[in-house]
Amino acid sequence: MTEPGDAVQLGRAASARAELAARTSYGRLLALLASGTHDITGAEDALSDAFERALRTWPVQGIPDRPDAWLLTVARNRQRDAWRSAEVSLTTPLDPVRHGGAHLDEVDPDAVPDRRLELMLVCAHPAIRPADRTPLMLNTVLGFTAEQVARSYAVPARTMATRLVRAKRRIRDNHIPFRLPDRSSVPERMEAMLAAVYAAYVIDWSTGPGERNVPPEALHLAEVLAELLPADPEVRGLAALVELSAARRPARISADGTFVPLASQDVAAWDATLIARAHDHLRAAHPARVVGRYQLEAAIQAVHCARRETGRTDWATLLDLHRSLAVVAPSLGSATALAAVTAEVEGPAAGLAFLDADAARTTRFQPAWATRAELLARLGRPAEAATAYDRAVALTHEPAERRYLEARRSELQT
Known about the structure:
Blueprint: H1 4-34, H2 40-61, H3 67-83, H4 86-91, H5 96-100, H6 116-123, H7 130-141, H8 146-153, H9 157-173, H10 186-207, H11 216-228, H12 233-248, H13 272-285, H14 293-305, H15 307-310, H16 315-328, H17 332-346, H18 348-357, H19 366-378, H20 382-394, H21 399-410
């Protein structure tokens, strides 16, 4: 007889193992399930049902020896049930090879190479709208919700969900094959893949270490791409960027769970090994003499990380790099960062002027409101700073950062 305490412990262990599988195996399992049918939505439904059953049965029956194989089997059977349903049998000509799922019967998911890069290349197919490729990768391959993807693009969640549904339907209806494309077509899809890894890094970074304990996905994928394309300077730059950011992650949250801004972080807590690896990537990229977005962002992070050795921040160099980035890759993020660095070099009024010039685009962009609040506070305008802090808090989804912003607001003398 299972004691109540044992049941609780087993339930927690089962939930933790299912969460681990969702985080590390979702994209791989989804690629296997969708490879024969091209139906990503159907594969997602089947995999979701498998995870739901795991949460119900593992706490009772125990965690299987091979959780991924268990999930694949349950999802495959769910697909077969759906294909045999009356609705599908009356409306869809069944293909025994595609719909029978026989290609999965003997598959050992633990022995199959990670197919996420393959699925990312599918999502970057020319038949998919360029604007939808990176969001589709984030949602389908890397497991981010439509809401998380929408936040990274500063658009309403409903708008993003509609775009994702449309893109998945296009893959199904056009029977886009799940295979590596001809080598000549890879470069045209690489930009979207790099953008997806970069966006995963941004989302993971913004959610904080408490939620996803990352950026492992972005870090892993960036390093895999660097191994596959070692001569591509932007691939190297992206790997360096993610590693430099990951190196500072342990110092981002204080002992009491509050966000610690970069300038206040304990540099001794930064990971010297990751910093060294990032510099290796930057040195490898340098001979190409081609400067791109990811190399510039990595160089910016390298300047910040240099404080670990020098004890100071080279703001003048940072300003030059941010100005270059704003030209090469203009975005809400680069504009906000340029405003913040301009304030360090030329004063808070100059930084605020940059923000004011771009105010129409940043109404839903949390970093812009947090930066505005800081600059207004430094200019001695507490009432306006409080309003900006309120807006930043309302747009913040990460608890540690919310606590930090609330504390900063409470320090204002209004």
